[in-house]
Write a structure and sequence with these properties.
The complex is a heterodimer of chains A (213) and B (267).
Chain A: H1 6-20, H2 22-32, H3 40-69, H4 75-100, H5 105-114, H6 116-133, H7 137-143, H8 145-152, H9 154-171, H10 177-208
Helix pairs in contact in A: 1-4, 2-3, 3-4, 3-9, 3-10, 4-6, 5-6, 6-9, 7-8, 9-10
Chain B: E1 6-12, H1 20-25, H2 38-42, E2 52-57, E3 63-66, H3 67-73, E4 77-84, E5 89-99, H4 100-107, E6 115-120, E7 140-144, H5 145-149, E8 154-159, E9 162-163, E10 173-175, E11 188-194, H6 201-205, E12 229-232, E13 243-244
Parallel strand pairs in B: 1-4, 2-11, 5-12
Antiparallel strand pairs in B: 2-3, 4-5, 5-8, 6-7, 6-11, 8-9, 8-10, 12-13
Domain Ferric oxidoreductase (chain A): 51-162
Protein name (chain A): Protein-methionine-sulfoxide reductase heme-binding subunit MsrQ
Organism (chain A): Noviherbaspirillum saxi
């Protein structure tokens, strides 16, 4: 089985880091080349929102991939994926706060309270903050593995809220193809966890227990 | 293709016209896809000639008129109108056309005619977006007869000194500047005068979000966003705040059409 050494892992991390900055680099380049279209702010908002969702999906796919492939080293890339989800979410939120509201926090909060579509997106963003803050090794030690894991299960809630936010946004276009696609991906990623943690142990138990005589 | 028209100073706003490039690459025309850039990319398959429009229903003189007939029906005027999209952005467009009332006069509506229904082309061969069921096709819009007869309501055949680009609703569309953009149906094939209020595409799809009237109104929010402000394409954004949306998109003359109506209820 493929099992990279520490040096190779570091190389993967470097490549991943550079690749994950690609979408931001593209936005900056497009900005300078005047290629963001007639409504650049909408373009940036959509694009950073999309990439938040992609990185959330990538982060959530690490565990299932490990289970299927046996590549346990993949776990070493997960923190970076998660932090990039937070990074693009922060850009997404900042675009909204800056260009939609010009840092008028009062107006922004009014929008958050009044509009479920924004409430949900904002909640997902706020919930990401403690996960980003506690992503360091030191924080894992301080919290203790169990408690850290419990806290980081929030990502299931965050991903679901993210999908709902995307769904409501697309509802305006009456076009659900993409929300359905990403909803399905997230559902499969979450359900695979249910399978491994609940159903599989049960089935194994059934198989290994001796037949009644 | 150039289209000559006489500027009508009575119908010109002082705002700076939107760049032609923006007005022709940032469109909602779901028959060609739901992304703003889709119409510019996909509308090449639309054939704006030959073209006919059938005018029927509650009229004394129904007729089918071709494009040349429409171009000659009344003198072409250039009018610069604000366009406010229900999504919260706006443009300023120099349209070419004439008041729809010119055409209405010719067909002589009967006493039964209370509404005008605009029916858009729905041809799978020319319009790839029809494959997706985002709306009920054909796209249908409608106005009350007095709204349709208001001089601002423009039967539109061109913009920026040219015939309408395909993505902007070639070869003939309606422009109703005090209503959200989706009321201004594109690529018309039929205009029908009716007794009853027409069922309109967005109202069928999401009645709680899009009313029949859909007048621009900063005080009536869309359920998912505020309508109090708008972003003028090409002007508002990185360095300036969004601008305040004006009642009836600034066309306050039309207020008399709605005397006594609760515009929160009839949104």
């Amino acid at each position: 089985m493929f099992n990279p050494n520490a040096k190779q892992i570091n190389l993967f991390k470097l490549v991943l880091f550079i690749a994950a900055l690609g979408p931001l680099a593209r936005l900056v380049l497009f900005g300078f080349a005047d290629k963001l279209g007639a409504n650049p702010i909408e373009f940036i908002t959509r694009n950073t929102g999309d990439w938040t969702l992609y990185f959330l999906c990538l982060t959530l796919s690490v565990t299932p991939l490990r289970r299927i492939s046996g590549w346990n080293w993949l776990i070493k890339l997960r923190r970076m994926l998660g932090l990039f989800a937070f990074f693009y979410a922060t850009l997404h939120f900042t675009t909204f706060l800056w260009f939609d509201h010009f840092f008028d926090i009062d107006e922004m909060l009014k929008d958050v309270v009044k509009r479920p579509f924004i409430t949900v997106g904002f909640t997902a963003f706020v919930l990401l903050i403690p996960l980003a803050v506690t992503s360091t090794n030191a924080m894992v030690r301080r919290l203790g593995g169990k408690r850290w894991q419990l806290l980081h299960r929030l990502v299931y809630v965050i991903a679901s809220l993210g999908i709902l936010h995307f769904w409501w946004m697309k509802a305006g276009k009456n076009d659900f193809a993409e929300p359905i696609l990403f909803g399905t991906i997230v559902a499969v990623l979450l359900l695979s966890r249910v399978y491994w943690s609940v159903l599989k142990p049960k089935m194994q138990k059934r198989q290994t227990s001796p037949a009644p005589t | 293709q150039k289209l000559a028209a006489r500027p009508n100073p009575g119908f010109v706003v002082m705002d700076k016209p939107t760049a032609f490039k923006d007005a022709t690459t940032y469109n909602n025309f779901y028959e060609f896809g739901t992304d703003k850039t889709d119409p510019a990319q996909n509308a090449g398959s639309l054939k704006p000639r030959p073209w006919t429009v059938a005018i029927e229903g509650e009229v004394k003189k129904p007729m089918t008129v071709d494009l040349d007939g429409l171009l000659k029906l009344a003198p072409l005027e250039e009018r610069i109108y604000r366009l406010r999209c229900v999504e919260g952005w706006s443009m300023v467009i120099p349209w070419i056309g004439y008041s729809l009332s010119e055409l209405i006069k010719k067909v002589e509506p009967t006493g039964n005619a209370k509404y005008v229904e605009f029916i858009t082309l729905a041809d799978k061969k020319q319009m790839p977006g029809l494959r997706s069921p985002v709306l009920e096709w054909p796209y249908v819009e409608g106005l009350r007869l007095d709204e349709a007869n208001h001089p601002l309501t423009l039967l539109t055949l061109g913009m920026y000194g040219e015939v309408l680009p395909n993505q902007n609703g070639a070869p003939v569309r309606i422009v109703v500047p005090w209503k959200y953009g989706f009321k201004s149906a594109k690529s018309l094939v039929k205009i029908r005068f009716t007794k009853d209020q027409p069922r309109t595409a967005w109202n069928i799809s999401a009645p709680q979000e899009y009313g029949f009237f859909s007048n621009v109104n900063p005080e009536v929010d869309h359920p998912r966003w505020s309508q109090a402000t708008e972003r003028r394409i090409g002007e508002d954004g990185f360095f300036s705040r969004k601008r305040k949306t004006l009642m009836f998109n600034g066309y306050s003359d039309v207020a008399s059409l709605y005397t006594g109506m609760d515009l929160k209820k009839f949104f």
